[in-house]
Write a structure and sequence with these properties.
The complex is a heterodimer of chains A (120) and B (111). By secondary structure, chain A is an all-beta fold. Chain A is 0% helix and 51% strand. In chain A, strands 2, 5, 6, 10, 11 and 12 form a six-stranded mixed beta sheet that branches. Chain A has a four-stranded antiparallel beta sheet with strand order 3-9-8-7, with no helix packed on it. Chain A has a two-stranded antiparallel ribbon with strand order 1-4. The radius of gyration of chain A is 14 Å and the shape is globular. The termini of chain A are far apart. By secondary structure, chain B is mainly beta. Chain B starts with a strand and ends with a strand. Classes of the chains: A mainly beta (120), B mainly beta (111). The interface between A and B is medium-sized, with 25 and 25 residues.
Chain lengths: 120, 111
């Protein structure tokens, strides 16, 4: 079974600085998706960024970028120019590619989450 | 507006009672999911459904039941057999791109 590990329960950053959140995963699959979700105090889960494993290029969405190391099974999130609105719980998630044996292809496995605090 | 609607947002239950959480979507997505979130833990999958009239157990299905009679609806019943039901429950759908889209969640508290 796939597992996702976020080893940093809490992180903090000064406004306008850069912070990196870590995520590692375990899988025997070669094709899969990886995601970072943000959960602010409202508890609404918001997709931050996604990465397809077959793509060598790291995904980027404005101030958010990832460092995807497939061989190391590592998927870190970098937030540049941190803003107060970035304060939230961040979850890393894994999803298999396609479907096999009736397993839902949309089933995501989540890490434990990292609480990010942004200091003004 | 397109999206996922969960209701109620807050629900209180006495021990021994069954309660049903509603999840409705107008995104025309085939697959729907129920996740449970506890403090200090990530999201854990309860049940999922890929198509109408079909659903599968997730990692923590004991004490829960679901139905999928319509594409738009995927209600979750928390039964009295669920020993520790106090939690935050999230409903989600999945689109073509593989990511999940979430509702705003329902907080269930057992009195």
């Amino acid at each position: 079974a796939q597992t996702v590990t976020q080893s940093q329960p809490e992180m903090s950053v000064q406004e306008a600085e850069t912070v990196t959140l870590s995520c590692t995963y375990d899988t025997s699959e070669s094709d899969y998706y990886l995601f970072w979700y943000k959960q602010p105090p409202s508890r609404q889960m918001i997709l931050v960024i996604r990465q397809e494993a077959y793509k060598q290029q790291n995904a980027t969405e404005n101030r958010f970028s990832v460092n995807f190391q497939k061989a190391a099974k590592s998927f870190s999130l970098k937030i540049s120019d941190s803003q107060l609105g970035d304060a939230a719980m961040y979850f890393c998630a894994y999803r298999r590619w396609g479907s096999a044996g009736g397993t839902s292809y949309g089933k995501l496995t989540f890490g434990q989450g990292t609480i990010l605090t942004v200091h003004p | 507006d397109g999206g996922i609607t969960q209701s109620p947002k807050y629900l209180f239950r006495k021990e021994g009672q069954n309660v049903t959480l509603s999840c409705e979507q107008n995104l025309n997505h085939d697959a729907m999911y129920w996740y449970r979130q506890d403090p200090g833990q990530g999201l854990r999958l309860i049940y999922y459904s890929q198509i109408v009239n079909d659903f599968q157990k997730g990692d923590i299905a004991e004490g829960y039941s679901v139905s999928r009679e319509k594409k738009e609806s995927f209600p979750l019943t928390v039964t009295s057999a669920q020993k520790n039901p106090t939690a935050f429950y999230l409903c989600a759908t999945s689109g073509i791109g593989g990511e999940l889209f979430f509702g705003e969640g329902s907080r269930l508290t057992v009195l």
